[in-house]
Amino acid sequence: MTSSSLTTFLQRNLEELKNNGLFNQIHVLQGGNGPLIHINGRELINLSSNNYLGLAGDERLIQAAEAALRKYGVGAGAVRTINGTMDVHEELEVKLARFKRTEAAIAYQSGFNCNMAAISAVMEAGDAILSDELNHASIIDGCRLTKAKVIRFKHSDMEDLEKQAKAARDSGQYNKIMVITDGVFSMDGDIAKLPEIVEIAERYDLITYVDDAHGSGVLGKGAGTVKHFGLSDRVDFQIGTLSKAIGVVGGYVAGKRDLIEWLKVRSRPFLFSTATPPAIAAACIAALDILSNSAELQEKLWSNAAYFRKGLEQLGFETGHTETPITPCIIGDEVTTQQFSKELFEAGVYAKSIVFPTVPKGTGRVRNMPTAAHTTEMLNRALTVYESVKKRLGL
Ligand SMILES: *Cc1c(COP(=O)(O)O)cnc(C)c1O
């Protein structure tokens, strides 16, 4: 018997979502996630993945995973502290630290998990966290797991951050104060103002925490946003994900040795959730090796993104203030934006609409993620589709 209060709750809320057109129908891919995907037997040009460098289907990663699968089996068998730590997990952490130019690193099962782990391992009652209002959901949830006071500051508004930092410090109410920001904001593709953030942090003795999920593998010759600004020694927590540009799955913190040692004894997803499968760690190592040896994929990513953005602009579209390969195509009102994305889908282009409340009202956009794996021919085909949908909708 299902509880009647649960049944009522689910029916009422699901119906409301469906009536408002907010219920998300999830598309099923037949086959892997690459520049081309297959849905319902149709081929589409994929402009919606975070597989920035095309590594999710890279033969070198597949071979590394296959070899590790044979050597270690499928599962890690335990949490890291019991006996789930294998030499591949250790090697991955050594390579991550080298990649990020830090003393040490700790790997988690996902980027989301990493934020659940790292924030609450150091922030406690009597502390405060200054958090950019557009920070990722996993940062928001990670903050909620602490007893620290969370203070939001206006998106990338350095005056507001400084004001709030000063007020928090002057109040004398808080011991530790942390500032947390995404490195790259995924909806607009803008980069956090890290040089200013670090300066403010040094002025008010703030712990710095940068979640660079969308910057790692993309900016700073691959090493990320912190390296891009030359701040590797001045940021305490560098968070990254292995699920986006690295093409596999996982998350990590890179930082000073003491910090990483502390996270290994205090962060709960590390202590209470099974280690990632060894084949996954091996594939991540292969990806880091590729990125350490060549900038070819990053260069392809950036030139594809510039090409696609210019193409959209030549068709008369507005692409916002992106500074990264994330390429929004601003359509405007919510209904038209959703219609636009649907028409793209019908014509063979997979690019998701993003509307209020994720972005402000009236700034609905179709978000494009060109990758290193797209060919010019694919991008041209996508632009032709954009042009025809624009005409059909009379924009
Ligand atoms: C995607 C993302 C995450 C989650 O990473 P996963 O590895 O997919 O769990 C965390 N933080 C930010 C800023 C992200 O964009």
Provide an overview of this structure.
α8 (194-203) links the parallel β6 and β7. The protein starts with a helix and ends with a helix. It contains 15 helices and 13 strands. The strands form 3 sheets. A 7-stranded mixed beta sheet has the order 3-9-8-7-6-4-5, sandwiched between helices. Strands 1-2-11 form a 3-stranded mixed beta sheet. A 3-stranded antiparallel beta sheet has the order 10-13-12, covered by helices on one side. With 395 residues, it is of the alpha/beta class. The protein has helices at 4-19, 59-72, 80-84, 87-100, 111-122, 137-144, 158-171, 194-203, 225-228, 257-266, 268-272, 278-293, 296-314, 334-346, 376-392; strands at 36-39, 42-46, 104-108, 128-132, 149-153, 177-182, 207-211, 237-241, 251-255, 327-332, 349-350, 352-354, 364-368. The protein is 45% helix and 15% strand. It has 2 domains: 23-52 and 295-393, Aspartate Aminotransferase, domain 1 (Alpha-Beta Complex); 59-293, Type I PLP-dependent aspartate aminotransferase-like (Major domain) (Aspartate Aminotransferase, domain 2, 3-Layer(aba) Sandwich). 49% of the residues are buried. α2 (59-72) runs antiparallel to α12 (278-293), α4 runs parallel beside α12 and α7 (158-171) packs parallel to α8 (194-203). It binds pyridoxal-5'-phosphate (PLP). Residues 110-112, 136, 138, 182, 186, 211, 213-214, 241, 243, 251 line the site of pyridoxal-5'-phosphate. Homodimer. Keywords: Acyltransferase, Pyridoxal phosphate, Transferase. Its cofactor is pyridoxal 5'-phosphate. One of its GO terms (molecular function) is glycine C-acetyltransferase activity. Residues 43-384 form the Aminotransferase class I/classII large domain.
